[in-house]
Amino acid sequence: MIDNLSGSINKRVSESEERFRALVTATSDVVYRMSPDWSVMWQLDGGGFLSDTGEPITDWLQKYIHPIDQEMVKAAIADAIAGKHMFELEHRVLQADGSIGWTSSKAVPILDDHGNIIEWFGAASDVTGRKRTEEALQKARDEAEQRKRLYEIVTANTPDLVYVFDPAYIFTYANPALLTMWGKSWDEAVGKRLSENGYEPWHAEMHEREIDQVISTKKPIRGEVAFPHATLGRRVYDYIFSPVINADGNVEAIAGTTRDITELKENEQRKNDFISMVSHELKTPLTSVISYVQVARKRAAQENDAVAVGMLERAGKQLAKMTRMINGFLNVSRLESGRVMIDHQVFDLSELIKEVEEEATATISSHTVVLAPLPQVLVNADREKVGQVFNNLLSNAVKYSPSGSNIYIACTTRDGYAEVSVRDEGTGISQEDLPRLFERYYRVKEAEANHIAGFGIGLYLCAEIVKLHGGEIWAESRPGEGSTFFFTLPVDGGVEAVYKHK
Length: 502
Ligand code: ADP
Description:
25% strand; Beta-Lactamase; 17 strands; binds adenosine-5'-diphosphate; 46% helix; elongated; alpha+beta; Helix Hairpins; five-stranded antiparallel beta sheet
């Protein structure tokens, strides 16, 4: 009976050895046989991935299983033995070449007629490649998560409004400040369009066109908008929409930030109002001082008091300078509040240049003004304001170049525009300062250091006037050699030709 039993067991074991060999031949996987309690590994064919075990060994755990995973493997084995069910586990192994790999391992218990385990038959496939990919993916996911948390902290704690649109104008992100402003929860607001988040039609429409523009130009845009806030009243916002460009070079989203600049604007307004008021108040006494000086000069002339005439003439010049400054400030405040009107008329620009130049040279003895031959150029513009622009450039050329040097003036036409240039032989302007010269109150540091008086409003006014005419203004300079200031104005009836040309 016992003989019979052991005979049948032996028979089965040898049968399973045959099956094992068949399996080894048929598969590229690792194949193994284990004793009923897994204390002995009877056989393992490593399939080139793990080293083979031909003779039974007891230290298979140390030989094949990565130390970190040994406990986990043991627990899974104990569980499979207790339940007499399949052992199944993905774990790290020590490969034939000593490196660490991953296997997906399965082993089934072979049972005798009484249900006792007589051996385990296992197969394991090499899943190292897949695991490495999974690990890399997980790492990328972790990093992305970490970045997300970081951005969330930043955007959650800024008072600025931060948001993202998809190309179909739908909000895909809104930071807490924006949600608070809307008085909405994330679920209520995200996934919606501007109009669905309470934006008025004109406002939603405006931003949608701006999103279109960012998508087509792939460039950020900046704007300012004022609208009534539910609880805070009228607010002014400064915003920037920037393209988020994907690997294909297309705009996949539009990221926006908006800042409440109401207080900044109010302060600016207060400052403007103050400057405007002060200038107005100064003008009245100044006007009467000017007339007293004129009368006094006449009287001094009648009395042949040459010294007094000289002094009163100088006083008159200083008063004229003061008037120009005050008028400058008044013009700034008029421009700021949009109260500057362009009084269009058709006139010959070269005539105006000659007039202003003659007037100016009558008082300039320090410089030689060289006028290039001026062709007749008809422009439809505000004669007085264009005269102011030219006069400003000319007096700057005098102010910022050494006496005895030349000032060259030219006027040409190109592509439907008249181009006026004023070149001096002064110290010039650095590349960093060039684009900023036309900002309000901007002065180059050296000008201040050299004690050349000014408030930095002349070029700002010039730029605003030229822009109101649809022209451009800019400066070119080589430090040490001098500067050239240019401005353009559309030639009368010539703009259409230019647009057609473009
Ligand atoms: P202001 O002359 O009153 O300071 P402007 O607006 O006319 O104001 O000029 C702004 C600044 O630009 C000046 O402070 C000066 O530094 C610089 N600038 C203007 N014209 C010239 C010039 N022709 N050469 C060199 N620097 C100039």
